[in-house]
Design a protein that fits this description.
The chain is an all-alpha fold. Helices cover 75% and strands 0% of the residues. The chain has one domain.
């Protein structure tokens, strides 16, 4: 199954755009204060968070399709590219943060702040869903 076979749901699209928008807004505010390297660090962190979200979504969709296709199989097979996408996302984040800490490419705090734009976008989506009354109901 190709990664783009299932289009993102509206909440997933809002989370993606929210990550990009929050990262860009934060980077612009930081750059306006005269901290260019920190602004680039926040942008890099936000980009990595967005990329991580996309890769993890792709890996989960592939695993879902495989589980449906191989339902009842005694020994299901998982292609190596699924593992690469799933664990590659974490390896990419870890290497970017380590590079920031050890090689001072950008301020490490700025990169980590950029990574948290995904968390902020998810929280904003939760608030949006609660405000619209789409919260799950207890039975």
């Amino acid at each position: 199954m190709s990664r783009n076979a299932v289009p993102p749901s509206p909440p997933e699209r809002r989370i993606e755009w929210g990550t990009v928008a929050l990262g860009a807004a934060a980077a612009l505010c930081i750059a306006a204060r005269g901290y260019g390297r920190a602004a680039i660090g926040v942008s890099a962190g936000a980009f990595l968070a967005w990329l991580n979200f996309r890769w993890l979504r792709s890996a989960v969709l592939t695993l879902e399709a495989l589980s449906k296709a191989q339902a009842g199989a005694e020994k299901p097979r998982v292609p190596s590219q699924v593992y690469v996408r799933f664990f590659g996302a974490f390896a990419l984040l870890l290497s970017a943060v380590c590079a920031s800490f050890f090689y001072s490419l950008f301020p490490a705090a700025a990169v980590v702040a950029g990574l948290f734009t995904l968390v902020a976008a998810v929280l904003l989506e939760c608030i949006y869903q609660l405000a619209r009354g789409h919260a799950p109901r207890a039975k």
